[in-house]
């Protein structure tokens, strides 16, 4: 009898241990570094979604500078794979809610961070901006667009451009289109000419790339001020100008090819000469240009070419990756040291040529940026700025989700009036 | 004391499971339902009790109707498809095909693959490109002269196409269930029917099929609850696009993208309820059957 008792107790204990072990074993990969962070206060855990070719190299270059400048600190790379950070953001939310924030995490600069700011999860970095005189080196419009109630919560590392029209010069020539169309009307005419030749006029990918197209058509149709006004309190999404922009969007979408799985296959259709145009952010340049495995190895200006999206010349529809300081960071000093590197000219010039973007700072070393990036750097210092919708600058995450939902529903029904009403409702529900 | 010795060790043995299931299944379930009845529509909101408001309001959302319709279409095609195909495979096996073991392994094997891996492969197979851009099944169909399809991108029947990989994956399992069922039908019964002048078709119609009813019901419930909760397959094939939206994907988007915990909890509760419609009658039926025997 005694032995049976002992056995029962032993099995019970084993069971309980098993339960706790499962709890520990199920934590995602990124969290494995937590234990180490607690053990040594010199570790700085930096959370990002830069794991792909180019971006991971850029992060490594910045890390090298950080470790040279701070020999007593250790950089812990807590990167989670996945384009535009879907999976990383889900994991980050559980970490923040569990009160175990990384020391610094990547986020799109602008309204996307509002959720974290409202929840009181981010520290105000205005003092860091003053200390490093960052307001003098970042464009004034950029500082204005990332400020929330006069406070700044993130340090932008790079700038990407959303309003780029990629095209295949050979296909355009064959269709008799003289050059990149400058206005929405010219664009629609050019799409018609390409269609007559039997090629795909405009390639598109999954539903988010259609939202990306929509923001470009809106900017091209409404102009910079009209576009920016849509995201301010009291904006009128029901206005006739918006209707006109959405009608143009419908016309343009009628020239779109079969939806591809994502933006890369859509961009590839242009590079391969199957399609004439694609509107995508400038991360597509790296995909076109880089040698195979990371890219398609195409020659710029002959295999593919670029121009600002129709009607948006003189405007930089921007988005930016930035780093933050979460409240309750275990190594606050280390995180600040990291943010200083991320904000510095040296850090940004190390990161950006590899990532294929331009620095947010105006004083970058122009010699490092050639070909497309040279054009982008020139435009960045002179252009007016507008914030991207799909990439988190102009609208918060819930607002963006509502917009994506409306675009998805539109693709099923093709009903412009319903789309406009849906967008107006989304703005009313989410604008602050 | 002596009596405690008989029941206490047993209780201690199952106690960890009872505690774990109580906390992590039923406790969480209760917490979720409670959250669904609040107005916690952002991470920072207080969350006051609003009763069933969220459960009613969600029917105003166009996307909810769409995702429910998608889930129903997917469930009907998947469950029927897997049952019919699984039954047919089992029927062939039962007829004493040569190399039965090999075939059984081949048909059962897809079940060992995760829905995510299946989804990645079938995303390519069901690529909607046509003509010179066709790959996967469309390329094959083009070569042999069959019409090409938009597959899961078809606005009306896309979810029926989405059920194809699920049928491919689960019909082998249904086959195994039915095969066990077929083998459980005593040969004497068939013999007796044949002696009475029953045709071979009649043997199946009147003897084997009625005896397979419990197996069919088990298969129906297993497939039905997988189908109503389907998430991984959809995400692997098309991501979180509206054209293939189902309640589980909508729930994920509501929680992590819209940052609306109450809405996510409401959808989660509806998913649990829809699965319960399948499972609870089954449980009642099993309990009754146990009592009878």
Automatic annotation (TrEMBL), chain A:
Signal peptide, first to last residue: 1-21
Entry's localization field: Cell envelope
UniProtKB keywords: Signal, Transport
Family: Belongs to the bacterial solute-binding protein 1 family.
Record-level GO cellular component terms: cell envelope
Species in which this protein is naturally found: Nonomuraea endophytica
Main localization of the protein described in the UniProt heading: other
Gene3D superfamilies reported in the protein's UniProt record: Periplasmic binding protein-like II
The name this protein goes by in its record: Probable sugar-binding periplasmic protein
InterPro entries assigned to the protein according to its UniProt record, in alphabetical order: Bact_solute-bd_prot1, SBP
Pfam families from the UniProt entry: SBP_bac_8
Physiological role: Part of a binding-protein-dependent transport system for a sugar.
TrEMBL record, chain B:
Keywords, in A-Z order: Cell membrane, Membrane, Transmembrane, Transmembrane helix, Transport
Cellular compartment(s): Cell membrane
One GO CC term, this protein: plasma membrane
Annotated ABC transmembrane type-1 domain residues: 68-284
Domain of life: Bacteria
Transmembrane segments: 7-29, 71-93, 105-125, 157-182, 203-226, 267-287
Major location category of this protein: membrane
Gene3D superfamilies: MetI-like
One Pfam entry name: BPD_transp_1
Protein's membrane topology: Multi-pass membrane protein
Gene Ontology BP annotations: transmembrane transport
InterPro entries listed in its UniProt record: MetI-like (IPR000515), MetI-like_sf (IPR035906), UgpAE/MalFG_permease (IPR050809)
Similarity-based family: Belongs to the binding-protein-dependent transport system permease family.
Protein name in the entry: Glucose/mannose transport system permease protein
Organism encoding this protein: Nonomuraea endophytica
């Amino acid at each position: 009898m005694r032995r049976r008792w002992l056995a029962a107790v032993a099995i019970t204990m084993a069971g309980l241990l098993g339960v706790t072990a499962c709890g520990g074993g199920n934590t995602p990969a990124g969290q494995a570094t937590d234990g180490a962070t607690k053990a040594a206060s010199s570790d700085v855990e930096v959370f990002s979604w830069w794991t792909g070719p180019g971006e991971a190299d850029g992060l490594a270059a910045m890390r090298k500078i950080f470790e040279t400048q701070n020999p007593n600190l250790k950089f812990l790379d807590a990167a989670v794979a996945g384009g535009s950070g879907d999976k990383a953001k889900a994991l980050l939310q559980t970490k923040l809610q569990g009160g175990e924030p990384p020391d610094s995490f990547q986020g799109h600069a602008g309204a996307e961070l509002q959720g974290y700011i409202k929840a009181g999860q981010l520290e105000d970095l205005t003092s860091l901006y003053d200390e490093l005189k960052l307001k003098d080196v970042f464009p004034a419009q950029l500082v204005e667009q990332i400020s929330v109630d006069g406070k700044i919560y993130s340090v932008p590392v790079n700038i990407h451009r959303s309003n780029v029209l990629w095209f295949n010069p050979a296909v355009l020539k064959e269709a008799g289109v003289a050059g990149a169309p400058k206005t929405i009307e010219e664009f629609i005419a050019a799409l018609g000419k390409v269609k007559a030749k039997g090629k795909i006029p405009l390639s598109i990918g999954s539903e988010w790339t259609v939202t990306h197209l929509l923001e470009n058509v809106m900017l091209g149709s409404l102009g910079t001020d009209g576009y920016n006004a849509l995201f301010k309190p009291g904006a009128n999404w029901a206005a006739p100008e918006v209707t006109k922009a959405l009608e143009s969007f419908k016309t343009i979408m009628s020239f779109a090819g079969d939806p591809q799985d994502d933006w890369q296959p859509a961009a590839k259709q242009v590079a391969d000469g199957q399609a004439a145009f694609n509107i995508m952010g400038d991360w597509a340049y790296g995909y076109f240009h880089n040698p195979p495995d990371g890219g398609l190895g195409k020659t710029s200006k002959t295999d593919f070419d670029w121009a600002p999206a129709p009607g948006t010349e003189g405007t930089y529809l921007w988005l930016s990756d930035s780093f933050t300081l979460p409240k309750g960071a275990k190594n606050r000093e280390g995180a600040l040291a990291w943010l200083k590197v991320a904000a510095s000219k040296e850090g940004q010039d190390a990161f950006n040529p590899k990532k294929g973007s331009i620095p947010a700072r105006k004083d970058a070393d122009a010699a490092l940026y050639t070909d497309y990036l040279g054009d982008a750097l020139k435009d960045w210092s002179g252009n007016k700025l507008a914030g991207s919708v799909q990439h988190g600058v102009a609208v918060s995450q819930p607002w963006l989700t509502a917009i994506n939902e409306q675009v998805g529903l539109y693709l099923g029904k093709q009903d412009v009036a319903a789309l406009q009403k849906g967008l107006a409702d989304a703005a009313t529900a989410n604008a602050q | 004391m002596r009596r405690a010795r008989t029941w206490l060790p047993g209780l201690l043995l199952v106690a960890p499971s009872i505690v774990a299931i109580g906390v992590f299944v039923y406790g969480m379930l209760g917490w979720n339902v409670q959250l669904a009845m609040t107005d916690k529509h952002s991470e920072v909101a207080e969350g006051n009790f609003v009763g069933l408001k969220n459960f009613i309001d969600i029917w105003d959302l166009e996307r909810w109707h769409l995702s429910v319709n998608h889930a129903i279409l997917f469930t009907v095609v998947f469950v029927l498809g897997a049952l019919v195909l699984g039954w047919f495979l089992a029927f062939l096996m039962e007829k004493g095909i040569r190399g039965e073991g090999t075939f059984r392994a081949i048909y059962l094997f897809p079940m060992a693959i995760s829905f995510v891996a299946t989804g990645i492969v079938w995303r390519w197979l069901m690529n909607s490109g046509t003509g010179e851009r066709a790959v996967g099944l469309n390329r094959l169909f083009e070569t042999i002269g069959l019409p090409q399809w938009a597959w899961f991108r078809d606005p009306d029947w896309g979810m029926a196409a989405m059920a194809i990989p699920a049928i491919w994956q689960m019909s082998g399992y249904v086959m195994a269930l039915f095969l066990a069922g077929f083998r459980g039908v005593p040969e004497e019964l068939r013999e007796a029917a044949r002696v009475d002048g029953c045709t071979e078709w009649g043997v199946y119609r009147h003897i084997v099929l009625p005896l397979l009813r419990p197996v069919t019901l088990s298969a129906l419930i297993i497939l039905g609850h997988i189908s109503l909760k389907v998430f991984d397959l959809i995400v692997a094939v098309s991501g979180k696009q509206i054209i293939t939206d189902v309640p589980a994907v909508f729930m994920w988007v509501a929680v992590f993208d819209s940052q609306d915990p109450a809405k996510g909890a409401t959808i989660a509760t509806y998913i649990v309820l829809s699965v319960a419609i399948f499972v609870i009658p089954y449980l009642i039926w099993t309990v009754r059957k146990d009592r009878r025997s």
